[in-house]
Amino acid sequence: MNELTATAHHDVGGAPGHEPIPREQHAFLPWELRVDALMWILGDAGRPGGRRMTVDELRRGIESLSPDQYRSLGYYEKWLTSLVAIMREKGIVSGAELRKRLAEVTIAHEGEHALEHAGDEHAQDGGDRA
């Protein structure tokens, strides 16, 4: 294999032995829409503070994923992993800040989940208890 025909692990289009890349559209999950919006915000040169990253940086971050990460992560998971890495690389956010915010979001999500399902046990038991 010479330099012109060598491919990296992320260059899978048409490669033998790989499953076809799914092309059907799916409903976007709320977090996927947020990741997309975040990329728009970070890439907007007209926003206060200016552009924080470019699509080329996003691509570089995705192409820097390990082969295992690249194969196991979904499309927006790759975007999010790249966004976080670039923001950390630029000193815009720290690992400690991310861990703190993740803990806050996890607690909030658990609380919302508990509220959504608070009546489930009661309903399964046949309604009111005397």
Provide a quick synopsis of the model:
The protein is mostly helical and 130 residues long. The protein folds into 2 domains: 29-93, Cyclin A, domain 1 (Orthogonal Bundle); 94-125.
Pick out its properties.
single chain; 130 residues; mainly alpha; Cyclin A, domain 1; 2 domains
Reconstruct the topology from this structure.
Layout: H1 30-42, H2 55-63, H3 67-72, H4 75-89, H5 95-116, H6 120-124
Helix pairs in contact: 1-4, 2-4
Q: What summary fits the major beta sheet?
A: none
Helix content: 40-55%
Give me the CATH fold name of the largest domain. Cyclin A, domain 1
**Gap between N and C termini, in Å?**
77 Å
Residue stretches low in confidence (pLDDT < 50, at least 5 long) are none
Rg from C-alpha positions? 21 Å
Please tally the helical runs, counting DSSP H or I stretches of 4 or more residues: 6
Gross morphology is: globular
Any idea how many domains?
A: 2
The whole-number mean of residue pLDDT values reads 82
How would you classify the helix and strand content by structural class? mainly alpha
CATH homologous superfamily (4th level) name of the largest domain:
Nitrile hydratase, beta subunit
Q: Which CATH architecture of the largest domain?
A: Orthogonal Bundle
- Output the helix-strand order: HHHHHH
Estimate what percentage of residues fall within beta strands. under 5%
Query: CATH class of the largest domain, please?
Result: Mainly Alpha
Tell me how many strands there are. Answer: 0
